[in-house]
Design brief:
Helix 4 crosses helix 6 and helix 13 packs antiparallel against helix 14. The protein folds into 2 domains: about 160 residues, no CATH class; about 220 residues, no CATH class. It is globular and about 100 Å long. The longest helix has about 30 residues. By secondary structure, it is mainly alpha-helical. Strand 4 and strand 5 form a beta hairpin. The protein has a two-stranded antiparallel ribbon. It is built from 14 helices and 8 strands.
Length: about 425
């Protein structure tokens, strides 16, 4: 029972609470826990205002364009040809990076610098993410809204490409076709931006879950095998350029264009480094590549004519490297085997061992996936530098795809099966 203070207590006069003081009550915590409670509704924060789709697409595409167009514009400015000419050259190079043919006095230029294309695709992928976030569709899994964002990004990017084509012009020493620029950049923007939009909205994860398990595994590890071959090509090209660095420096120094001109040429060579990596991968696979009409650069033979003075060409092999024949034959098998080993580790297992139908099915599909990706890279990395002898540059896409698919399939199936058998014996 609670205790109260007596009225005769002399401390009453000094109590600051006076007559209003309440007696102290001791509460039983167990009794308090047993009392019923009422759940109050959670107070929701006021929602953010959503931006209109076209406005979000315009802002995102504008920033992506600024970032991706800056390197070629700098290269045109370093060329020292004046503001107007440098602007036209820079925008022409930017359009060429998307695969838009450029007409010149020496013939059409269709050899797209893959570094510029990769930069533009990356920025558009980020633009898709930002646009989805701006319209409030993030993590909704809404396929319709994802397609709407992709279409809006493609539409705006196509308009930007048309404006760039108008600045470059349809006549003169450097020219592009406006409708070709609009069409190419519309498709480019819709695809690259759509990838980012699908990832941000959750539509990509939703579609991924809907695919059969073997298809998901094949897509994942076939991509790993293709990237492994491209990495080997990049390493081989880098080693060749490092060994021929003195010759490349002499070629660069032969251009009497001053520091700005040499810097612009360096940026131009850097833009084509991914192309060189693709060509080197085709060289390691066996089909090789061409450096002009009726030319061939393979492990078995090197047949080229007169080449322009470009520092990147200093790393070309001087002759055949027949000693690498065994490695060339094994390269796609090794890359496919690496992907198959990773696939076998990630594949679902049953109680009695691996699920052989899923494991071998995914391994068999991973080879064609790798071949398709490398064939696409070979197709994108080739083209023409004029109408003369350099009208054919790069590997033959279908040959690269066929060799990579066959070797990757054999390597993936063998290694995945061996891995599954070994793990089964250990059990």
């Amino acid at each position: 029972m609670a205790a109260t203070r007596d009225d005769t207590d002399p401390a009453r006069d000094s109590d600051p609470a006076g007559d209003d003081a309440q007696p102290t009550v001791l509460l039983d915590l167990d009794e308090l826990r047993s009392r019923p409670t009422v759940v109050l509704p959670r107070q929701r924060r006021p929602g953010r205002k959503r931006a209109p789709l076209l406005l979000a697409a315009a802002v995102a595409v504008g920033w992506a364009t600024l970032v991706s167009a800056l390197p070629p514009l700098l290269a045109g400015w370093f060329a020292g040809t004046g503001f107007g000419t440098g602007l036209r050259l820079g925008l022409a190079g930017w359009l060429l990076g998307h695969g838009v043919p450029v007409r010149t006095a020496v013939g059409p230029l269709t050899l797209a610098p893959l570094a510029l294309g990769a930069l533009a695709a990356w920025r558009l992928e980020r633009a898709g993410l930002h646009a989805v976030r701006a319209i409030g569709a993030r993590r909704t899994g809404a396929i319709g809204r994802t397609l709407a964002v992709a279409g809006a990004l493609g539409l705006v990017y196509g308009l930007v490409g048309g404006l760039a084509a108008l600045v470059v012009g349809g006549d003169g020493e450097v020219a592009v076709t406006a409708w070709r620029a609009v069409l190419t950049l519309t498709v480019f923007g819709a695809v690259a931006g759509g990838v980012g939009a699908a990832r941000a909205s959750g539509a990509a994860a939703r579609l991924h879950r809907a695919l059969p398990v073997p298809v998901r595994l094949a897509a994942r590890f076939g991509t790993v095998a293709a990237l492994t071959l491209l990495a080997l090509g990049a390493a081989a090209a880098g080693l060749a350029l490092a060994l021929a660095w003195d010759d490349a420096s002499k070629v660069l120094g032969a251009y009497r264009t001053g520091v700005g001109g040499q810097l612009g040429l360096t940026l131009l060579c850097a833009a084509y480094l991914p192309n060189v990596a693709v060509w080197a991968a085709a060289y390691l696979l066996g089909p090789g590549f061409a450096l002009g009409t009726e030319t061939s650069v393979t492990v078995a033979e090197v047949h080229v004519g007169a080449l322009p003075a470009v520092p990147l060409f200093a790393g070309l092999p001087d002759g055949d490297l027949a000693g690498l024949g065994l490695f060339v034959a094994a390269a796609p098998v090794l890359a496919g085997g690496f992907g198959g080993w990773l696939l076998a580790r990630a594949a679902p297992r049953g109680g009695d061992g691996p699920d052989w139908s899923r494991l071998l099915g995914a391994a068999a599909l991973s080879g064609p996936v790798a071949g398709a990706l490398l064939g696409a890279a070979a197709w994108a990395g080739g083209g023409a530098l004029g109408a003369g002898r350099l009208a054919e540059l790069g590997p033959v896409a279908w040959q690269v795809a066929l060799v990579a698919a066959g070797g990757g399939l054999v390597g993936a199936v063998l290694v995945a099966a061996a891995h599954g058998l070994l793990r089964g014996r250990r059990r």
